């Protein structure tokens, strides 16, 4: 197998050939947070936002986005996800919602992009559903927390690689 790069011998972009890589069970976990005004947070917590169940709709949007990652990210391989879970943690004191997505597949390439896409679309959906009452929301700390499977093995975020 040649070097894994998105550039061919002429320096032009192309999709990396993963054909010689072994199928392995692969997982990735990503997370991100959206901060909002306390009044906006209360709408989410109470389920009384005018557009409906913010968390429920954000969960569906995140799962759907993870399945469409290769349509959104140039040169990203389409993969057959075997499982996607999306959870939300609400922090009353900070008026934040944290989205955590876990993607799994059995394949030749990882699911990091799918987990990261799920988190970002989940947070963007929350923003979209609440922007009429709070345009000052901010999304932060979006990143990969863990990946496992494949040649590079297991990686876990810690303070040294944050």
From TrEMBL:
Signal peptide: none annotated. Residues 15-150 form the Molybdopterin cofactor biosynthesis C (MoaC) domain. Its EC number is 4.6.1.17. One of its GO terms (biological process) is Mo-molybdopterin cofactor biosynthetic process. Substrate binds at residues 75-77, 113-114. Pathway: Cofactor biosynthesis; molybdopterin biosynthesis. Belongs to the MoaC family. This is Cyclic pyranopterin monophosphate synthase. The gene is moaC.
């Amino acid at each position: 197998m040649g070097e894994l790069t998105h550039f061919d011998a002429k320096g032009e972009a192309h999709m990396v050939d993963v054909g010689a890589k072994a199928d392995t069970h692969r997982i990735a976990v990503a997370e991100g947070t959206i901060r909002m005004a306390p009044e906006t947070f209360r709408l989410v917590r109470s389920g009384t936002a005018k557009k409906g169940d913010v968390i429920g709709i954000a969960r569906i949007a995140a799962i759907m986005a993870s399945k469409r990652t290769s349509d959104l990210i140039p040169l990203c391989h389409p993969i057959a996800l075997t499982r996607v879970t999306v959870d939300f943690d609400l922090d009353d004191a900070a008026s934040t919602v944290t989205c955590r997505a876990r993607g799994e597949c059995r394949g030749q390439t990882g699911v990091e992009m799918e987990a990261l896409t799920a988190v970002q679309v989940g947070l963007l959906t929350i923003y979209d559903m609440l922007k009429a009452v709070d345009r000052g929301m901010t999304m932060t700390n979006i990143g990969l927390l863990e990946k496992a499977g494949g040649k590079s093995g297991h990686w876990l975020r810690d303070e040294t690689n944050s």
